[in-house]
Amino acid sequence: xxxxxxxxxxxxxxxxxxxxxxxxxxxxxxxxxxxxxxxxxxxxxxxxxxxxxxxxxxxxxxxxxxxxxxxxxxxxxxxxxxxxxxxxxxxxxxxxxxxxxxxxxxxxxxxxxxxxxxxxxxxxxxxxxxxxxxxxxxxxxxxxxxxxxxxxxxxxxxxxxxxxxxxxxxxxxxxxxxxxxxxxxxxxxxxxxxxxxxxxxxxxxxxxxxxxxxxxxxxxxxxxxxxxxxxxxxxxxxxxxxxxxxxxxxxxxxxxxxxxxxxxxxxxxxxxxxxxxxxxxxxxxxxxxxxxxxxxxxxxxxxxxxxxxxxxxxxxxxxxxxxxxxxxxxxxxxxxxxxxxxxxxxxxxxxxxxxxxxxxxxxxxxxxxxxxxxxxxxxxxxxxxxxxxxxxxxxxxxxxxxxxxxxxxxxxxxxxxxxxxxxxxxxxxxxxxxxxxxxxxxxxxxxxxxxxxxxxxxxxxxxxxxxxxxxxxxxxxxxxxxxxxxxxxxxxxxxxxxxxxxxxxxxxxxx
Length: 511
Ligand SMILES: *[C@@H]1O[C@H](CO)[C@@H](O)[C@H](O)[C@H]1NC(C)=O
Ligand SMILES: *[C@@H]1O[C@H](CO)[C@@H](O)[C@H](O)[C@H]1NC(C)=O
Ligand SMILES: *[C@@H]1O[C@H](CO)[C@@H](O)[C@H](O)[C@H]1NC(C)=O
Ligand SMILES: *[C@@H]1O[C@H](CO)[C@@H](O)[C@H](O)[C@H]1NC(C)=O
Prior knowledge:
Layout: H1 9-12, E1 16-17, H2 23-59, H3 64-67, H4 74-77, H5 79-93, E2 100-102, E3 113-117, E4 135-139, H6 148-154, E5 158-160, H7 167-179, E6 188-190, E7 216-222, E8 235-236, H8 239-247, E9 255-258, H9 266-270, H10 272-287, E10 294-297, E11 300-305, E12 308-311, H11 315-325, H12 330-346, E13 352-354, H13 355-362, H14 367-377, E14 382-384, H15 385-396, H16 401-412, H17 422-433, H18 441-447, H19 455-464, H20 466-475, H21 489-500
Parallel strand pairs: 1-8, 2-9, 3-6, 3-7, 4-5, 4-6
Antiparallel strand pairs: 7-9, 10-11, 11-12, 13-14
Helix pairs in contact: 2-5, 2-6, 11-14, 11-15, 12-15, 13-14, 15-17, 16-17, 19-20
The protein binds 2-acetamido-2-deoxy-beta-D-glucopyranose (4 copies).
One 2-acetamido-2-deoxy-beta-D-glucopyranose is lined by residues 122, 137-139, 142, 148.
């Protein structure tokens, strides 16, 4: 399932959506939208306001202990139909007048979990009333939103927190408990892609829904409309545009197809990743789109190759083009890189540094460029200089890959043992790629011999193993191959020109 060319990925990844509209469609949207949008949003808001107290009532007055069990009784049979009716009405008001249904939603005993794909936007919740409001998995940020938070509580959702390191383990335990409860907990609904795409391919499924090894029902969600307005992805159309263009149509077609229940084989039960991959392929085939190895890690879209996470927008290439844009010549960049590695090697200050320090190392007067570079690499205030040094050096071609690997190896093997541990290898690959690497076990086993991972073996695997060779070529070398791996002045110049024209840092969605 590996992509043939990881590099052209920059152009073909499915995390980008742009509405292509003719002039006539644009005018139509403005005219219809100015009438329909306010009307629809007002009605939907009113319905949401009505849902709020009803949703709250469901868990009102219950102890935490009672809430940790499935809610039963009047709170269920009375409030459930009301919420179902109101949520259907909300979508009706937004233009989802009817939803075409193919197949039949499996009952809880047949399939404790429904896996829905492709995930297009928050409007995908249109599927919920058709599935008797199956329980969803959501992020903890969502619970603080007005109304939505109350509805999530209503659904007794499983909440994932990005900040709590314990959260992952808790969620896995909670999911397993619910999915294997034999009918005690209600049915669950999951979007195994974990993020939204433009639907041109199915991205890698997260194993969550497949961990328990129970049967799943694949559900296909399609929006067969002339204007594909319902999508909201990492880049491109904003959520406001999604809402505006969807509300500006007379109606929006939606189709939900319940596929036959998929029962895992013994092998799939043991290996949730295999199970997830097989269901992904099955659903992609039914949709007539390719299945790919893209995933969202943190908030960054990456391609998975040989266990490595390769960010689609290379932080190193983006940094380099930004440096050139802010007037640094190739030799300035080279000098700055030398200052960086000197500081890392001196060991006195450690490798973490703030945006201001980075600005001074780079010899920049404005802190903004340095701040942007920091943000390519890390989400917090400080950045690991080793990541910047190695990743930028690799793509700038000032030093050969072999020489760079030698420097990295020495830095990540501070005891000078001549061999790296699995953890040190993961740090080294993270520095080279400019992105944390958590799954370097495959690479480690390929490159180690009798528990020893030497520089020589690592270089051999990285430059001759078909998978890793490709990674090095596409991600750890200058854009244009200039024949020799050894950089010379000419190579640097060529490189600069191509990078200047790249400009892939635009349109980054501000989240
Ligand atoms: C969706 O992504 C594909 C690449 O996978 C791209 O070719 C296509 O133009 C994108 N569609 C839209 C509508 O942006
Ligand atoms: C809630 O979180 C999920 C991810 O689990 C996301 O797809 C969805 O858009 C969020 N909903 C809202 C209303 O923010
Ligand atoms: C939970 O159930 C309500 C009730 O219909 C539904 O509207 C809502 O979208 C569901 N999911 C979430 C994420 O709140
Ligand atoms: C909805 O689907 C029908 C075909 O099933 C199509 O003729 C119609 O144009 C679609 N509506 C929109 C708004 O795209």
